[in-house]
Design brief:
The structure holds two protein chains of two kinds. Chain A is an alpha/beta fold. Chain A has two domains: 168 residues, Rossmann fold, CATH 3.40.50; 69 residues, no CATH class. Chain A has nine helices and ten strands. In chain A, a hairpin with a 2-residue loop joins strand 9 and strand 10. In chain A, helix 3 packs across helix 4. The N and C termini of chain A lie far apart (39 Å). Chain B is mainly α. Chain B has a single domain, classed as MetI-like (MetI-like fold, Orthogonal Bundle), CATH 1.10.3720.10. In chain B, helix 3 packs across helix 6, helix 3 packs across helix 11 and helix 10 packs antiparallel against helix 11. The longest helix of chain B has 41 residues. Chain B is flat and about 80 Å long. Classes of the chains: A alpha/beta, B mainly alpha. Chains A and B meet through helix 2, strand 6, helix 3, helix 5 and helix 6 of A and helix 7 and helix 8 of B.
């Protein structure tokens, strides 16, 4: 078997005196969906931000394919072109239409001509059920629509790896489904996804691997079945009973 | 995939109920009444002010010295010719100020190590030129620059005046734009960087457009102030509106020419303000769902 696409080794991150990630080891193979679960503040988002170079790690390494992302000599802009990220708060550009949001990176970073970039963007929007929203500005869209537009923006550059940072946490319950359907569809198409999520039912359905984070380490890791149905660690059991009691 | 759409289907046979029609009639009559009240109150205030002015003991003198119709008509063409110079100075200064101000703001917000000397220079520049009164700056540049007798320095008073205005206003505009650049949420910058845009592209396509929108009102405020301050150049002697009015006033012992000059400035600033308001409202409506109609 070839080497995993994303390899995280001994990653440590602290803000001031607060240690968020103690030592994280994690592999994400190509075409896999890996879900990070854990309580608020357990470091799920921080780990994703470290992978996308939005945060500088304090120790350890992150490799994407051949290149080491944590090497300060690496051109961060080049590395980021291979990674797409979707944020909890969408973070669409409010001054641009949905279409311009999506075509910005392909046109400016990858040099795709406008006509071609817009054609593929419209195709993408059509697939995500947003074809009629292309000319609207993000603020006119519902939360679920905005998050699907943000996913389209991340997909437009055809990244090797997608990072989803609790992308349904800001959504009304009835809108969560439409976004998760998109993610399931992406898995069908063979994309590689690392996502932080609170949706245990969804993780059970689509994740190839589930990791439970606590105290800055991955406390338990395995298939969705293993971790979510028969957790070995007490902390995992406690977490799951807390989360599942309310859903 | 199938996604639900939120919009309800249109229904052509909907007719407003009697209750709704009655409510609409009431709202209409209420609006009519409000318009009448507003108009009557305004008219009353204007009449009261006018009566008070006419009834004042000095009214005769004021009327002949400040509101002299014949004087107004005979001097206005001359002042208008002068005012054309104000407009030209304003337009030229405006473009230069935007360029210089933007440069200063960008230098001050970037962190490239090679730009450190420029960053320092920009900070000193803003500190100095924002601290010096504009009129003083007009004097200093207007009389000081030609005195240096450097090769190629302009000697026309209006050019020197424009230089002084640009130096003064670029410091203000630079600070306004810098505040705008800092007002854009850091998550926007991160989202752009995450897409692979480099720092220059992020600034150009994501941060700057939002920054300019955020500071449009103070920016236009500065430009309206600039339009008025072109009159300060009068102290250097070019025949702009204020200088032309001054000459006429001194010659005829009548202040009406000043009033003519004032009216010309207002005639430009008021439409400018309305135009700016409209631009801004349209941008807000396009961007924000709750900006209203």
């Amino acid at each position: 078997m070839s080497e995993p696409l994303l390899r995280i080794r001994g990653v440590r991150k602290q803000y001031g005196s607060r240690l968020v990630l103690r030592s994280i080891d994690l592999d994400v193979a190509e075409h896999q969906v890996v879900c990070l679960i854990g309580g608020s503040g357990s470091g799920k988002s921080t780990l994703l931000r470290c992978v996308d170079l939005l945060e500088v790690v304090d120790d350890g390494t992150v490799h994407l394919g051949e290149s080491e992302l944590t090497d300060p000599r690496l051109d961060a802009n080049l590395a980021r072109r291979r990674i797409g990220i979707v944020f909890q708060a969408y973070n669409l550009f409010p001054h641009l239409s949905v279409l311009d949001n999506i075509t910005l990176a392909p046109r400016r970073v990858h040099g795709v001509p406008r006509r071609q970039a817009e054609a593929s963007a419209l195709e993408l929007l059509d697939r995500l059920g947003l074809a009629d929203k292309a000319q609207d500005h993000p603020d006119r869209l519902s939360g679920g629509q905005q998050q699907r537009a943000a996913i389209a923006r991340a997909l437009a550059t055809e990244p090797d790896l997608l990072l989803f940072d609790e992308i349904t946490s800001a959504l009304d319950p009835e809108l969560v489904g439409e976004v998760l359907d998109v993610v399931a569809d992406l898995k069908q198409r063979g994309l590689t996804i690392l996502m932080a999520t609170h949706e245990m039912g969804f993780a059970r359905q689509v994740a190839d691997q589930v990791c439970f984070l606590e105290d800055g380490v991955i406390l338990e890791q395995g298939t969705a079945e293993q971790v979510l149905t028969a957790p070995r660690q007490q902390a995992t059991q406690r977490f799951l009973s807390r989360v599942l009691d309310h859903s | 995939m199938d996604f639900t759409t939120q919009a309800a289907p249109p229904d052509e046979d909907y007719r407003p109920s009697a209750r709704e029609r009655e409510r609409e009639r009431f709202r209409r009559s209420r609006r009519r009444r409000n318009t009448w009240i507003a108009a009557l109150c305004t008219l009353f205030c204007l009449l009261a002010l006018g009566a008070a002015a006419v009834a004042s003991p000095g009214w005769e003198r004021v009327h002949s010295l400040f509101l002299n119709g014949a004087e107004f008509r005979s001097t206005l063409p001359e002042i208008l010719r002068g005012f054309w110079l104000n407009v030209q100075m304003f337009l030229i200064a405006e473009v230069l100020i935007l360029g210089l101000g933007l440069l200063i703001a960008l230098v001050r917000v970037t962190r490239a190590p090679g730009l450190q000397p420029l960053r320092l220079a920009a900070t000193v520049y803003v500190d100095v030129f924002r601290g010096v009164p504009t009129l003083l700056l007009v004097f200093l540049i207007g009389f000081g620059l030609p005195a240096l007798r450097l090769q190629g320095t302009p000697t026309q008073p209006w050019v020197l005046g424009v230089i002084a205005l640009v130096l003064s206003y670029a410091a203000y505009v630079g600070e306004v734009l810098r505040a705008g650049l800092n007002s854009v949420h850091p998550a926007q910058r991160n989202a752009a960087r995450a897409l692979g845009l480099n720092e220059r592209q992020t600034l150009r396509h994501v941060v700057l457009p939002q920054a300019v929108r955020n500071v449009l009102p103070p920016l236009l405020n500065d430009f309206i102030a600039l339009q008025k301050d072109t009159a300060l150049v009068a102290v250097l002697g070019p025949l702009e509106a204020l200088r032309a009015a001054q000459i006429k006033a001194d010659y005829d012992f009548n202040y009406t020419p000043y009033l003519g000059a004032a009216l010309l400035f207002i005639a430009v600033t008021i439409p400018l303000t309305r135009f700016a308001d409209r631009l801004q409202r349209r941008a807000a409506q396009r961007t924000w769902a709750e900006a209203g109609r």
